[in-house]
Specification:
The chain is α+β, with helices and mostly antiparallel strands and about 140 residues long. About 30% of the residues lie in helices and about 15% in strands.
Length: about 140
């Protein structure tokens, strides 16, 4: 089960592909203007990204986001907040869904569905969620 997270949350916003570079082949954050240009030129990438696909160019990532802007994904993003009390913090907060996250920001969505793993209480605090909401998922 997934839970709805506000895209205005500063933790999730700080992990947006518009703010940080995510993929090895993308040397700087994606810009919204690049998505706009791909949409205008009707350049789309329907193929879901797989972490084993190291050969994706910057353009392929931009075109994938453009596709998702037009075709809203139903699959929630996957987040792992780790278990800080046991000194376990994953390298990346978002385990899967950066293209979906970027598309949601581009569209101006207020929320995104997310599946959350790790310390439930910590996740609730991090994302400003109601007490017990993450454990219920």
């Amino acid at each position: 089960m997934a839970i709805r997270i506000k895209l205005s949350n500063k933790t999730i916003r700080s992990h947006s592909p518009f703010n940080v570079f995510i993929w090895d082949s993308v040397e700087r954050p994606i810009r919204k203007l690049e998505i706009t240009k791909a949409l205008f030129e009707k350049r789309y990438n329907k193929t879901p990204y797989n972490s084993n696909q190291y050969d994706w160019s910057r353009e392929k990532h931009i075109e994938r986001i453009a596709w998702l802007v037009l075709h809203k994904a139903r699959k929630p993003i996957e987040i792992d907040v780790g278990i800080p009390s046991m000194e376990f913090c994953p390298e990346r907060l978002i385990q899967d869904g950066y293209h979906r996250l970027a598309a949601a920001y581009y569209r101006g969505d207020e929320t995104i569905m997310a599946s959350i793993a790790g310390d439930c209480k910590y996740a609730e605090k991090l994302f400003g969620l109601p007490k017990g909401s993450v454990a219920a998922q």
